[in-house]
Structure formats: structure tokens, C-alpha cells
Amino acid sequence: MFQGFYTLTSGVLTQNRNLNVISNNMSNASTPGFKADRMIISDFYNEMMIRTGNKNKSDTTRIGSMSLIAGGDETTTDYTQGGLSVSNSTLDFSILGDGFFPIQTDNGTVYTRNGNFSLDDDGYLCLPGVGRVLGDGGTIYLGTDRITVDGTGRIFNEQTGAQLGQLTVVDFADYAQLNKENGNVFTTNANAVAADADIQWKTLENSNADPIDQMTRMMASERALQSSAQILSIYDELISQMRTMGPTA
User: Among the four 91, 174, 199, 238, which has the fewest Cβ within 10 Å?
Assistant: First the structure.
């Protein structure tokens, strides 16, 4: 068996996983508050190569190591803040600094940087398709989109001046405890603490997935996958030829 089969097959599988990560980044390049992922590729295992005696094989000597399989070590998330863009919607918000908006869902609280909010059928401030936005006193009931907001996140009725709610921003000591879920949100069992961040009204945080950078990574990954697949085909042809020739006298 050619040892290269291990390296090439694992290379194909690993690059397929890497392309899935990159494709997800590219598809969310215009999603507000999206945080790009990156797969870290490393050796799956180093096989020890040793020299042994002809009869007594108990006294072995290591002469080197050889990696046969590449694999995905982990997928990391880049939490770098994206740029801010101006919005005309009174229900759009962005966070300047570290932190997340807490969102109430049927399965508990999730966290997001996406401040592209709306009003649900009952008049509550919500992240569409996810849940209701949580403020100081729980979910935030507005009943109208004719509002004004100050720099601390206090929301007022534009006509009466009455305060309708207070946006909150929370943060975590260790982002490694965050789990990325569908819908551009994060879940965690870690305790959330109040964050010292400014809330920008009528702005949205852009995705930090750079389309040009992601395209470059995609092209490099595709070339690596194609090279591995082509050499695998050559290996297969060599084995077929060896079987046809049969053992030599």
C-alpha cells in the first residue's frame, strides 16, 4: 500500500471541510455583525519510525517521525469588529467595542453582534427569525418604530418623549466558550457580564469577512484539493498496472 494514499485522501477530506468554512464566510460577507471562521489544519498523527534488530526487536531506536495524515485541528472565529455603515432604519443598532446583544429565544438566551432589529407582531423589538431583544427589564416593548435613542441605549417615544426601554450589551471573559449557531448568533453556558460599550443608533456593523481574502483562500484550497485528487488518480493507475503485470520471477 502506498503511504501517500493516507496523505492524499486526508488532504481531499480536509480541504473539503475548509471549503465549507470559506463558503459560509463568503455567503455572509454582507450579513451585519457576522464573524468569519477559519479552520486550522494540522497533522492528525505523527507515526514514529524506528530501527529494530534482526532477531531481538526489544531495543528499538527512533530515527525520525513522519506525518501521514492531515486534518482539521479546530475552527476558530475572528471576533474583530467590522466597520460601521449608516442606516436609515430607526431599529438598527451597532456596538462600538466588545460585547453582544442578548436575544431571548424559546431555547434560552443567545448573543449576537447583528443589530438589524425589527418589531414582531406584538410590537416587541426582535431579531427576525431568532427572538426578542433583551434589555434591562427583560424583553423590550416598543409598539412603534418612531423612536429616538441616546448613546447609552435608552429608547424613547419620538412623539411623547416617554422612555420605552433600555438596550443592554453583555460580554464574556473567554470567547472560546462561545458556540456559533445558525442565524449569526452564539450560545454559551458562561456567565454574561455588563460590557462597557457604546451603542450606535441608525448604524449597522458590517461583516468582518473580507470577500477578497476569502476568495484567495478558496482558490488556494481548491488547488490543493485538485492536486491531491489528481495524484490519487495516478496512484490508482499505478496499482492497476502492478496488478496486471503480476509478480516478477
Answer: 174
∠ Cα 193 101 189 (to 5°): 50
Rounded CA-CA distance 179/115 in Å is 19
Residue 173, all three cell numbers: 471573559
Tens-place pLDDT, residues 119-143: 999 999 999 999 999 999 899 999 9
CB-CB neighbours of 43 under 10 Å: 15
Cell numbers for 72, please give them. 482539521
pTM over the 0.85 mark:
no
What does the alpha-carbon distance between residue 213 and residue 72 come to, in Å, rounded to a whole number?
20
Overall average pLDDT of the 183-201 stretch: 92
For the chain, the residue count is 249
Question: What pLDDT score does 135 carry?
Answer: 94
Q: In angstroms, rounded to a whole number, what is the distance separating the alpha carbons of residues 19 and 56?
A: 49
